[in-house]
Amino acid sequence: xEDKKNNVFTEIEINASPQEVWTVLTDxxxxxxxxxxxIGISTNELIKGEKFVSYFKNPLTGGVxxxxxxCTDYEEGKKFGWSGDIIGKVTDLHIYSVEPKQNxxxxxxxxxxxxxxxGILLNFLAEYHMMSMYKKFNLELKERVELLYPxx
Length: 152
Known about the structure:
The protein is α+β, with helices and mostly antiparallel strands. It is 27% helix and 39% strand.
Protein backbone atom coordinates (compact mmCIF):
# COMPACT_ATOMS: atom_id res chain seq x y z
CA UNK A 1 0.00 0.00 0.00
CA GLU A 2 1.20 3.48 -0.86
CA ASP A 3 2.37 5.50 2.15
CA LYS A 4 -0.12 8.29 2.84
CA LYS A 5 0.18 11.04 5.42
CA ASN A 6 -2.71 11.25 7.85
CA ASN A 7 -3.70 14.67 9.13
CA VAL A 8 -5.77 13.53 12.09
CA PHE A 9 -3.87 12.22 15.09
CA THR A 10 -5.12 11.64 18.64
CA GLU A 11 -3.71 9.77 21.59
CA ILE A 12 -4.59 9.09 25.20
CA GLU A 13 -2.82 7.34 28.06
CA ILE A 14 -4.86 4.55 29.61
CA ASN A 15 -4.09 3.14 33.05
CA ALA A 16 -4.13 -0.48 31.91
CA SER A 17 -1.98 -2.97 30.03
CA PRO A 18 -1.92 -3.02 26.21
CA GLN A 19 -3.66 -6.42 26.29
CA GLU A 20 -6.49 -5.02 28.44
CA VAL A 21 -6.95 -2.06 26.08
CA TRP A 22 -6.80 -4.35 23.03
CA THR A 23 -9.38 -6.71 24.55
CA VAL A 24 -11.90 -3.91 25.06
CA LEU A 25 -11.13 -2.20 21.74
CA THR A 26 -11.62 -5.38 19.69
CA ASP A 27 -14.67 -6.76 21.49
CA UNK A 28 -16.81 -5.88 18.47
CA UNK A 29 -20.08 -7.09 20.02
CA UNK A 30 -19.74 -4.75 23.01
CA UNK A 31 -18.55 -1.56 21.28
CA UNK A 32 -22.10 -0.23 21.11
CA UNK A 33 -22.39 -0.49 24.92
CA UNK A 34 -19.80 2.23 25.52
CA UNK A 35 -18.94 4.01 22.25
CA UNK A 36 -21.07 6.93 21.08
CA UNK A 37 -19.74 6.65 17.50
CA UNK A 38 -18.00 3.42 16.39
CA ILE A 39 -20.41 0.56 17.13
CA GLY A 40 -19.07 -2.54 15.40
CA ILE A 41 -17.83 -4.39 12.34
CA SER A 42 -19.29 -7.15 10.19
CA THR A 43 -16.67 -9.76 11.06
CA ASN A 44 -15.13 -11.19 14.19
CA GLU A 45 -11.69 -11.41 12.59
CA LEU A 46 -9.87 -8.68 10.70
CA ILE A 47 -7.60 -10.04 7.98
CA LYS A 48 -5.23 -7.81 6.04
CA GLY A 49 -6.54 -7.31 2.51
CA GLU A 50 -10.08 -8.52 3.34
CA LYS A 51 -13.22 -6.39 3.01
CA PHE A 52 -15.63 -5.79 5.86
CA VAL A 53 -18.28 -3.28 6.92
CA SER A 54 -17.92 -0.93 9.87
CA TYR A 55 -20.93 0.53 11.67
CA PHE A 56 -21.08 4.03 13.10
CA LYS A 57 -23.84 6.00 14.77
CA ASN A 58 -24.90 8.81 12.46
CA PRO A 59 -24.53 12.02 14.49
CA LEU A 60 -27.15 13.80 12.34
CA THR A 61 -29.92 11.21 12.16
CA GLY A 62 -29.21 8.89 15.08
CA GLY A 63 -29.34 5.97 12.65
CA VAL A 64 -26.53 3.63 11.68
CA UNK A 65 -24.03 4.31 8.90
CA UNK A 66 -22.49 1.32 7.14
CA UNK A 67 -19.10 1.88 5.50
CA UNK A 68 -17.24 -0.75 3.48
CA UNK A 69 -13.53 -0.95 4.21
CA UNK A 70 -10.49 -3.04 3.40
CA CYS A 71 -8.24 -4.03 6.29
CA THR A 72 -4.88 -2.36 5.54
CA ASP A 73 -3.02 -3.14 8.74
CA TYR A 74 -3.35 -5.84 11.36
CA GLU A 75 -0.94 -6.85 14.10
CA GLU A 76 -2.61 -8.83 16.87
CA GLY A 77 -2.49 -6.95 20.14
CA LYS A 78 -0.86 -3.90 18.55
CA LYS A 79 -2.79 -2.24 15.73
CA PHE A 80 -5.40 -2.48 13.03
CA GLY A 81 -6.39 -0.16 10.23
CA TRP A 82 -8.63 0.24 7.26
CA SER A 83 -9.25 2.25 4.14
CA GLY A 84 -12.43 2.82 2.22
CA ASP A 85 -14.44 5.29 0.18
CA ILE A 86 -16.06 8.04 2.19
CA ILE A 87 -17.45 10.29 -0.56
CA GLY A 88 -16.98 9.40 -4.21
CA LYS A 89 -13.28 8.70 -4.74
CA VAL A 90 -12.24 10.24 -1.41
CA THR A 91 -10.91 7.55 0.92
CA ASP A 92 -9.79 7.48 4.50
CA LEU A 93 -6.88 5.61 6.06
CA HIS A 94 -7.73 4.96 9.72
CA ILE A 95 -5.31 3.25 12.12
CA TYR A 96 -5.87 2.29 15.75
CA SER A 97 -2.84 1.27 17.83
CA VAL A 98 -1.85 0.42 21.39
CA GLU A 99 1.67 0.88 22.72
CA PRO A 100 3.07 -0.09 26.12
CA LYS A 101 4.62 2.68 28.19
CA GLN A 102 7.47 2.15 30.67
CA ASN A 103 5.23 3.09 33.60
CA UNK A 104 2.90 0.13 32.92
CA UNK A 105 0.18 2.13 31.18
CA UNK A 106 -0.81 2.09 27.52
CA UNK A 107 -0.75 4.80 24.88
CA UNK A 108 -3.78 4.43 22.60
CA UNK A 109 -3.50 6.23 19.25
CA UNK A 110 -5.82 6.93 16.36
CA UNK A 111 -4.73 8.42 13.09
CA UNK A 112 -6.75 9.10 9.99
CA UNK A 113 -6.94 11.33 6.98
CA UNK A 114 -8.81 11.87 3.77
CA UNK A 115 -7.08 11.14 0.48
CA UNK A 116 -8.16 11.74 -3.09
CA UNK A 117 -9.73 14.43 -5.25
CA UNK A 118 -11.36 16.89 -2.87
CA GLY A 119 -11.09 20.51 -1.92
CA ILE A 120 -8.91 21.83 0.88
CA LEU A 121 -11.93 23.29 2.73
CA LEU A 122 -13.85 20.01 2.62
CA ASN A 123 -10.75 18.19 3.82
CA PHE A 124 -10.24 20.62 6.71
CA LEU A 125 -13.89 20.54 7.83
CA ALA A 126 -14.18 16.76 7.64
CA GLU A 127 -10.88 16.14 9.43
CA TYR A 128 -11.79 18.70 12.12
CA HIS A 129 -15.03 16.77 12.77
CA MET A 130 -13.14 13.46 12.73
CA MET A 131 -10.66 14.79 15.33
CA SER A 132 -13.52 15.74 17.66
CA MET A 133 -15.15 12.31 17.31
CA TYR A 134 -11.86 10.47 17.87
CA LYS A 135 -11.03 12.41 21.02
CA LYS A 136 -14.45 11.50 22.42
CA PHE A 137 -13.96 7.85 21.44
CA ASN A 138 -10.54 7.85 23.15
CA LEU A 139 -12.08 9.12 26.40
CA GLU A 140 -14.89 6.56 26.19
CA LEU A 141 -12.35 3.76 25.62
CA LYS A 142 -10.25 4.95 28.56
CA GLU A 143 -13.29 5.04 30.85
CA ARG A 144 -14.45 1.58 29.77
CA VAL A 145 -11.01 -0.06 30.12
CA GLU A 146 -10.28 1.52 33.49
CA LEU A 147 -13.75 0.50 34.74
CA LEU A 148 -13.25 -3.12 33.66
CA TYR A 149 -9.60 -3.34 34.78
CA PRO A 150 -9.23 -1.11 37.85
CA UNK A 151 -5.73 -0.57 39.24
CA UNK A 152 -4.94 -0.22 42.91
